[in-house]
Amino acid sequence: MPSRALPALTSSRKSSNVAPNILSRRLKELVDDGLLEKVCYSSTPPRYEYHLTPRGRDFRMVLLALAEWGNRHFAPEGRQMQLVETATQRRVEPVMVDKATGEKIIPGKYAMVPGPAASPLMKYRHEYLLRKREGDSGQKFQPEPYRDASNESDQ
């Protein structure tokens, strides 16, 4: 799969005020986080391009949703970029749907709840917020004191 990241990054570096060291640091962070893969395309001199990983490709949907949200709420002058169907150039509006039913995800019909890997604290917080929304204002939120487990192995 050809990479489109290199031309975009090269042109954005030239057209923005991003210093090369800042761009390099940000690219390294994206590689470290598993969103990009650094690929050597010329050994003499060494030159690299960046390809999206499967994790990075999955993140496109998040970016599309954020772009649509930004266009809706922060672009009074109109859209500067928009999502279009490649074949027809028809503008499309991304929406989130339930994969099983195809129904649009809307507030009130769907809710986030603790999953199988949720910690006891996460489950407690969720239960507390549910009770508070239902009018139980007498309950106090008293989580256990925070302990940084990463420091405990040093001692």
TrEMBL record:
It comes from Klebsiella pneumoniae. Keywords: DNA-binding, Transcription, Transcription regulation. The keyword Lyase does not apply. PROSITE patterns: HTH_HXLR. Transmembrane segments: none annotated. It holds the Pfam family HxlR. InterPro entries: HTH_HxlR, WH-like_DNA-bd_sf, WH_DNA-bd_sf. This is HxlR family transcriptional regulator. Residues 1-78 form the HTH hxlR-type domain. The keyword DNA-binding applies. Residues 145-155 have a biased composition (Basic and acidic residues). Residues 133-155 are annotated as: Disordered. GO terms for molecular function: DNA binding.
